[in-house]
Amino acid sequence: MKRWLVLSPLALLALMIGFGACKSRVKPESNEILFWHWMTDRDKVFQELAQQYEQQTGVKVLVRLYAPVEAYSQNVSVGAQTNSLPDIYGILGDTKIKASFIKAGHVLRLDEALDADNGAWKKSFYKEALETSYFPPVNQFNVPQGIYGVPIDVMTIPMIYNKKLFSKAGLDPNKPPETWSQFIEAGKKLKESGVTGFVSGWAEGWLIYSMATDLAHNLMGADKVMDTFRGKVPYTDPQWVELLGAFDELKKAGFADNSMVSMLNKYAEQAFATEHSGITFNGSWSINVFEGMNPNLELGVFRVPALSNKFPRTVWGAAGSVFNVNAKSPNKEKAVAFLKWLTEPDQAKFMLGRTKNIPATKGLEKEFPAIINDFAGMMDKSIHPSRFPVSEEPKVIETFTKGIQAILIGEKTPAIVSREVQAAKEKSLKLNP
Amino acid sequence: MKVFWRGIFSSLTRFRASIVSNYLFVLPALIMFLTFNVYPFYKVFQMSFRDWNGIDPGGGTFIWLNNFKEALFYDSTWWESVRNAGTITLLALTLQNFLALVLAWIVDRGVRGAQFYRSVFFLPPILSGVVVGLVWNWIFRGEAGILNRCLTQIGLGGWTHAWFSDIRTALPALAVVHMWKGFGWAFIILLAGFQGIPRELYEAARVDGANEFSVFWRITVPLMVPVFTLVGVLTILGSMQLYDLVVVTTLGGPSGHTEVPMFTILRELTDNPRFGYASCLGVVFGFILVFVSIVQLQVAKRTKAE
Amino acid sequence: MIQVEKKMTFERITLSLRRILSSIACHGILATVAFTCLFPLVWMFSSALKTQRSVLTDMSLIPSHPQFVNFTKAWTEGNFGSYFLNSVIYTVGVVFGVLFIASLAAYAFARLQFPGKNLLYYMFLATIMIPVPGAVVAIYVLIMKLGLIDTRLGYILPQINGSFAVGLFILKPFFERIPIELEDAARIDGCGRMGIWWNVLIPLARPALAVVALFTAITVWNEFILAQLILQDQALMPLTKGLLTFWGGRLAQDHLMMAGATITVVPIIIAYVFLQKHIIAGATAGAVKG
Questions:
Q1: Which DSSP helix (H) or strand (E) runs through C23?
Q2: Domains of chain B: total
Q3: In contact, A385 and A94? CB cutoff 8 Å
Q4: Same-domain check for residues C36 and C169
Q5: CA A200 to chain centre
Q6: Could you give the count of Cα atoms lying within 13 Å of A144 in the half-sphere of its Cβ?
Q7: Residue C196: which CATH number?
Q8: Residues C165-197 pLDDT 10s
Q9: Does B289 lie at the interface with C, CB-CB under 8 angstroms?
Q10: C96/chain B closest Cα distance in angstroms
C-alpha cells in the first residue's frame, strides 16, 4: 500500500507526459513532407492534391491547417523560435518579419531551383507574383538577394458591385464609378433605393489600409508615398489630408453601413451576398464565398475610384498565398519538388476550378470564369508592400487605420488624424533611427 | 561517551529525515510554484529590458530602459487602453456593485423564491466569457443585432444604433456585457456577508425603535466593511484584466476605443511579436494593479478606523 | 374603545398595504434582473435551432421548424465533438492534478512541522491575490522553452498551478478541523504519514474535495487566455478556443456558432443545477481567499 502511494506521484507524472505525447517535430530525412497552411477554404483541395501526389510519387504530404490566421502566424513564430518549423510553410506579415525569418536561416533561397532548365519554373509564374518574395541586391534588411517563396495563387482587392442593385437604383450596371465623386453619387442613389451603398469589414485594419494606399498612389504617385515612408514627406502634407478627407466625405454622405468599422469582413461578405449592400471592397477570394451564399448574384468589379487624374488608379494585390521551404529541413529537396508539382498547370487548374482563386501560374487565362478574368486583368496595375522599396512601421500603419476609423465614426477630422499619424511617425523614427 | 554521541547522532538523523520527508508533501506544490510563478516573474522582468521579436536567436538585445520609456511616455494606445479598462472598472465598482448590493439586501430579507433568484443571478459568472461575448455580440450587432430588431419591432426604430461602432456607445456597451457577467459574483459574496451578521443585532436595534434605514446604516454597513473591501478589490482586479469579452465583441474597435490592457499586451506578443515590449507592458500593468489594490485597502482601513 | 380598534385596523391595513407594495417592488426588481440573466441564454438556444437564413430574420423564441440537425452539424462538421472531448480531458487532468497537489500540501500545512512553513503558506496564497498579468508572456516563453507549445501537458500544467492555491486554501482549514484522534488510531494500526493522508484525511475530506473539484472544473472549462496562446492545433483545442476558431472561420454561420455555444455551456448549466450548493460554496471560498 505504502509503496503504491509513494509511486503515485510518479505514475501521475508519467500519465501526464503521456498526455503531452511531446511531439518531436524535428525528423530525420523521410518520405514525408509536413505542410502547414492557414487557408480554411483551400484545405480540402490541398488534401486531395496531397493524395494524388502520394499516388504518383510515393511521397506523403501531411497537410495541416491552422486557423484563424492569427493562430497560424503564432504557430509559425513559435516554430521558428523552437526550430520546429515544418518542411513547407508560409510566412504571413510584412517584409520585416519575412526578413527576420530569412536571416535566422529558416527559409531556403529558391533561385537555383527556379533558374534550372533555363528558368522554366520561374517563367511559368506571373512576374508580379514572384516579385512578392524577391529581395533586391540592396535592401534595408540586409537580406542576401534572391527569391525566397513560391506563389500558389494571387489576389487583387478591388471594389465589387452588384449589377442588379445598380439597375434598381437607376445606375448603369455596366458603368461603374470612376472618380470618387461618382462613387459618392452612386452610393447615395443606392441608399435611396433602399440598400446600403457600401460595406466592407473595416474592423480589420488591413482592408482600410489597402484602400487608403490605393488612393494615395492615385493622388500623389508612388514616389511621394515612398518618400513619406522614408520620413521625407510628412503625413501632414496637404495631399495626405486630402486623402483622409475622402473618408470624411464617405462618412458625411451617409450611405455606408453604419456599423462597418466594427464589422468583421465575413459579415460584410454576408451583407453583400444577401444583397443588403450595393458595393463592397473585397478580394478576389470572396467570389467563391459569394457564389456559395447566393448563386444569383451578378457582379462587376472596378478599381478604387480616382481622387485625381494625375496618377493611375491602382489595385492592391498580386500577392497571395506564398509558401516557403524550411532551409533547416532534411527534406528540403522533396519539399521543393512538391511545390514545383503543385504549381504545374494541371494542379493549378484543379485549384482554380475548386476555389476560384487566380493562379500564380500563367497560361490558364482561358479557363478563368468571366469575373475572375476581371480580377486578373488588373494585375498590371497592382501595388503591394512586399514590392515597395521601403516599408512603413506597423505602429504608424496602426495609427493611420485607427485614424480613418475615427474619421468614419465622426470622432476626428482629417487634419487631426494627419497630425496624429505624423506624431506616430516621428516617434518611430526616433525609436528606430 | 560513545553511546551518548551515537544517541545524539541517530536522533538527529531521524529528526532530519522526518523533516525532509515532511517537505515531500509540499514538494509538488513547491515545484509548480517555482516553475510557473517564480521563474516567469523573474523572466518577465529580465525580458522587459530587451528588444526581441521572438524569432532572432539569442533573445534579442539589451536596450536598457527604452521599453519603459516608450511605454510610459510615447505609447498613447497603451494609456488609452488603461483608461478604457479604468472606465469599465469605475462603472463596475459603482453601478454593478450597487445593483448587487440592492439585490443581496432584498434576498437577505427573505422574499419568496430567494433560492431561485440566488441561483439565477449566479448563472452568468459561471459561464464561459467567450460564449457570453458571442451572445452579446449578437445582441448589440448592427442591423442584424437582436436589440435593434427588437427596437424596430416595438416601434422604436429611431432608437436603433450601431452599438459597437459608435464611440459614445461602444465602451458602455462593453461595460454592460462585463457587468452582466460580473454582478452575480458581487451579489453572492455580499449575500454571504449579510447572512453572516447575527440576527440578534437587528432585533435589538428594532426593539430600540430604529427604522429599516438606520438599522442598515448603523449596524449592517460597519460590519460589512471587510466584505465591501473584498468585493471592491475583486471587481478592480477582474475588470482591469478583462480580455475574453473584448476578443469576441469589439476587438478593441472602433478606432481603439474599447482596447484594454490585456488585449494590447497579447497583441504585442502575437501580431507583431515584440516579446520585450509586451513584458514591459506587463510589468507596468502589474504595478498599476498592485498600486490600485493597495489604495483601495488603505481607504477601507481608514473608513473602518472611523 | 371602538375608535381605537378602528384606528388599529386602519393602521394594520396601511401596514400590510405597504408590505404588499414593497414586496411587489422587490419582486419586480428581482424578476427583471432574473429575466435579463436568462434571456440571452434562451435566445442563444433558440437561435441554435434556426437556419442560416432565418437566424437573421426570425424573431420568434420557439422557431416553427426547429433544426436539431444544427447540433449534429456543429458536433461533426464544426468539430465541436473533438473540442468537447478535449475540454473533458483538460478538466479531468487539471482537477486530479489540483486535488493531488493541494491535498498533499494542505495535509502538510495542517499537520506536519517543517521550517519555513508559514512563509511558504503565505507565498502560495499570495499567488491568488497578487496579479502578474505580464506573466502570461513569461509563461508562454517558458512553455515554449520546455517544448510544450501545442501539447496537452503544456496546457494542463500552468492551469494546475493556477488553481492549486485556491484548493489549498479551502482544504487546509478543513483538515485542521478533523479530530486528531482519528489519526492516532490509524497510526497505531501502523500507518505512516502517507497512509494517514490517503486512508484517513482524503475519505473524510470528501465534501471539501468535491467543492475544490467543482470550482476547479468550472475554471478550467471556461479558461481562455492560455488556450489562446498555447494551443494552435485544432485537434487539441478545448471548447472555448474552438468556439473562437469557429467564429473566426471563413464563413458566417451564426446558427452553428450558437449551437456550438450551447454545447459549450450546457455541461456547466447541468452541473450547476444539480450541484449548486457546492459550486457556490467553492466560488465564495475561492473569492474570500484573501
A1: helix C2-47
A2: 2
A3: yes
A4: no
A5: 15
A6: 10
A7: 1.10.3720.10
A8: 889 988 998 888 888 888 888 888 888 888 888
A9: yes
A10: 13
Domain residues for B17? 2-47
Q: Inform me whether the pLDDT recorded for B1 exceeds 60.
A: no
Neighbours of chain B (3+ CB pairs under 8 A): A, C
Q: Which CATH superfamily is domain A157-316+390-431 in?
A: Periplasmic binding protein-like II (3.40.190.10)
Sort out which chain A residues have CB atoms less than 8 A from C198's CB and list them. 5
Q: Is residue B183 predicted with pLDDT exceeding 60?
A: yes
Are residues B115 and B256 both part of a single domain? yes
- Shortest CA gap C261–chain B (Å): 6
Mean of the pLDDT values across residues A241-262? 92
Which residues on C lie below 8 Å from A6 (Cβ)? 194
Residues 64-83 of C with CB under 8 A from A: none
Paired sense of beta strands A88-89 and A315-325, if any: antiparallel
**CB A71 to CB C245 under 8 A?**
yes
Whether residues B115 and B223 share a domain: the answer is: yes
Residue B291 Cα distances to A207, A407, B69, B232, angstroms: 40, 36, 20, 14
Give the whole-angstrom CA distance, residue C256 versus residue C76: 11
CATH number for the domain running over A29-154+318-381: 3.40.190.10
Contacts B279 to C, Cβ<8 Å: 134, 137-138
Chain segment C63-93, per-residue pLDDT in tens:
888 888 889 988 988 889 999 999 999 999 9
Say if residue C35's pLDDT is above 90.
yes
Q: Is C224 on the interface with A (CB under 8 A)?
A: no
> What's the CA gap between B121 and B116, in Å, rounded?
9
* Statement to judge: residues B14 and B132 lie in one domain: no
- B266 and B184 both lie in a single domain: yes
Q: Is 90 exceeded by the pLDDT of residue B260?
A: yes
Question: Is there a single domain that holds both residue C176 and residue C235?
Answer: yes
With CA atoms as reference, report the closest residue to C109 among C49, C55, C35, C170: C170
- Kindly indicate the confidence band of residue A20, based on its pLDDT and cuts at 50, 70 and 90: very low
Q: Rounded mean pLDDT of chain C?
A: 85
Give the residue from B277, B262, B236, B247 showing the smallest Cα distance to B82: B262
Instruction: Give the domain range for residue C100.
Output: 77-287
Contact flag B266-C228 (C-beta cutoff 8 Å)? yes
The burial class, CB within 10 Å (0-12 / 13-18 / 19+), for A87 is buried
Which residues of A have a CB under 8 Å from any CB of B? 9, 70, 73-74, 77, 80-81, 93, 97, 100-101, 103-104, 106, 203, 257-264, 267, 271, 276, 394, 398-399, 402-403, 405-406, 408-409, 411, 427, 431
Say if B63 falls within a structural domain.
no
Are C148 and C11 in a shared domain?
no
Nearest to C245 among A2, A68, A289 (CB): A68
Mean pLDDT across A207-233: 94
Nearest CA in chain A to C254: A267
> Residue A290 contacts by C-beta under 8 Å, 6 or more apart in sequence?
A269, A272, A273, A297, A299
- Partner residue opposite A67 with nearest CB, options C151, C152, C249: C249
Average pLDDT rounded to a whole number, residues A379-400: 87
B192 and B84 in a common domain: yes
Digit-coded pLDDT (tens) for B53-95: 777 767 778 888 888 988 888 888 899 999 999 999 999 999 9
Residues C33 and C140 in one domain: no
Residue numbers of B between 36 and 55 with CB closer than 8 Å to A: 53-55
Q: Is residue C197 part of a domain?
A: yes
